[in-house]
Amino acid sequence: NIRDIYKELQVISEKLKAENKSLHEREQKLKERERMVSISSQNIQTIAQHEIKQKLQVVEEKYKADIFRLETLLREKNKENKRLKDNFETLKQANDALKKEFESLQSQHEKLEKQAVTVQARLTNLQRKQEFDQRQKEMEISMGNAVPKQQKPKEAEEKTKQRVQKTAGCCFDVTGILLDWVSDAHLRCAVSEVPGKPLERFLSPEYLQDKVMKILPSAVDMLREFPGQNLRISLPCIQFIYWALIHVENCAGQQKSGLSSTLRRLGEELYRAKTVRFSELEKSPSEIVPSSPSKLDKSKDGIYFRSQNLHVRLLSSLIILKTLSQVDLLAHVFDVLRNDLKSDIAKELFLYYQATPVVLQYLKPVNKTFMGSAMDIFLQMSTDSPFQQPFLETCSTETWFRTIAMVLRAPSQDSKLLEKLSIILQKLSKFRCNRKYFEVYTIVGIIQELLRGCPTDQAFLALNLKSILFNLTSGAAQ
């Protein structure tokens, strides 16, 4: 047994020795392999570092080249910008010089325009004076012919006949046009089976404009011969003339210049109303009695603008405001109109004839002479009365607020005018629908600026301005 065990141990020992030898050989191989791998790794690292250094050098050179190129471009751009800046400064200086020259030319142009307007106004006044002198001469000649009982009776009769024929011709012309108008626009359409199309044509602005332009000149001539005290004749005539003027102004502003002489004659006829009537010359020569100039003038002293009837007087005042431009006459008309508007009847007529735009044109800064008079009328209409609300509604328009903005922006402002205007604006600011007009025309900003610069002695104006701002910013607006 021991031998067997020894043999087995010897066999195991030989196997272990053989295994140890193989492991030693393997260890030698691994060391050799490890050495080769280390050498290879060092070679690869050296090669990699060399390649990296080369690539880094290439990138660095490229970067330097790009930097140089960009710096060159930047210098060129800076030069270009400097050149453009110099050009811009030159152009700016030239523009400023041209702007100053333009402003100078514009101011010169405005001066020339004002001079032209002044010359035109003087020419117009001279023409009016000439026409008035001509009428006075005709009146004196007529008076001279009327004084002798039997001096030139035939010539007096011929003049009377000519005047009667002229009056009749005007009446016939107006009557014919009116009858043709009524027949075409109303009677024929009333019996037509298809009334829609003709009605549209007869209601068109062009059709109405044509009829109005035909009637107005003859209607003005008829005013001279109408018995002014007969309201059944004179009142409808001036009513038609007033609405015709409104229509002409709204529909065809370019044609209004063609009626300038007619409108001037209309305003003068309504204001003066002293045309001599030849009622006495219509008698037989044996019945002619000499008349003094005062007696002849009194025949038409109490009609139209000088009428005792409030309706006729107010309507004549509105027509005169639309037709005349003489300062003294318009000042008298404003005084009469302001005095008439103390009654509620006159206020009702003022609203019926939509007279707010008529007076509003005199509130513009270009009519500085009449701004106070126009504001007095508006203030009188805005006082507590049954017609206060309708009047404020007529002022709640874009045109009214545009004009008010022009008044507030005027360089020279009258404190009394601003106080009166603030009263009306305070009442208008209570209407919610008016807020947009206050904002669109920057009236709020103007009021704030006025409030900041309001002197201490104008406490009433400051109070009204604060009330306006409070109404616009609070939720109490109607």
Automatic annotation (TrEMBL):
Keywords, comma-separated and alphabetical: Coiled coil
Organism: Magallana gigas
Boundaries of every Coiled-coil domain copy: 178-472
Superkingdom assignment: Eukaryota
Protein's name according to its UniProt entry: Coiled-coil domain-containing protein 138
Residues in Coiled-coil-domain-containing protein 138 coiled-coil domain copies: 79-137
InterPro entries associated with the record: CCDC138, CCDC138_C, CCDC138_CC
Residue ranges of coiled coil: 6-33, 67-129
Xref: Pfam families: CCDC138_C, CCDC138_cc
